Task: structure prediction
Amino acid sequence: MPELPEVETTRRGLAPHLKSRSVAGVVLRRPDLRWPIPPEIKRLLPGEKIRGIRRRAKYLLLDTDPGSALLHLGMSGSLRVLPGKTKVEAHDHVDIALDNGKVLRFNDPRRFGCLLWQPQGETHELLQDLGPEPLADGFDGDYLFELSRGRKAPVKTFLMDQGIVVGVGNIYAAEALFEAGISPLRAAGRVSRERYQALAAAVKRILAYAIERGGTTLRDFIDPNGTPGYFEQELQVYGREGEACRRCRRPLRNAVLGNRASIYCPHCQR
DNA sequence: CTCTTAACCTGGACGC
DNA sequence: TGCGTCCAGGTTAAGA
Result:
């Protein structure tokens, strides 16, 4: 489900519900997701005022005075604010009850997500080696060009490396490479500075637009208010193997890179 | 270091 | 209807 636009959409949807609320209690229906849920979540969160909710890369940080709950939605996670008595369904793993009777509920069928603890003043090691935010000024074509010199991995793999730039997952990597006219198979070190400038611009434009539209709806992405995203119908290549390229009408092809489908147009992308 | 591959887990779509 | 196979938005760990 979530790449950066979906996580940001989730954050924006949750923020008004959480602002200035306190945590009334925490319910863990299983001891772990991807990793064990640390004891601080149950020990330190209850009673604390929620100071805000931030996003870094695809992580969400629920800030309180002693520290922050660090959440990742993995492939299938979702967060919603619901009336406290809402019936618990399959894969509803965690509830963070609020002082107004509502509950922040974390559902994640595949359990690739996580709920961890970051003490006040520290940076969790998962956040230590992340690249810049794609919508920040520090991310541009020159940055990609310099970092990519000598790299032999495919440019799509390079772009999806969270240590290079965060937040670009399989959907938006495919879309940005199409917009920039770059083949996903090309070695990262063999893309020119000019084409990286086009790629960085495409990443920024597409992510910003997807956030504006409320994220991509695939299968079951639903923002915290229950509104589906509207980006899916505008995808150019993702999920369209064999269909006609919207630019040249030739069939789109798939190349498996890093075990991920990579749909592209062999004619429009070089 | 860089790069590739397998693995984590569940559910839905599809073919027979 | 049922069963096997493949695939899915992410990330890490291990190996070459």
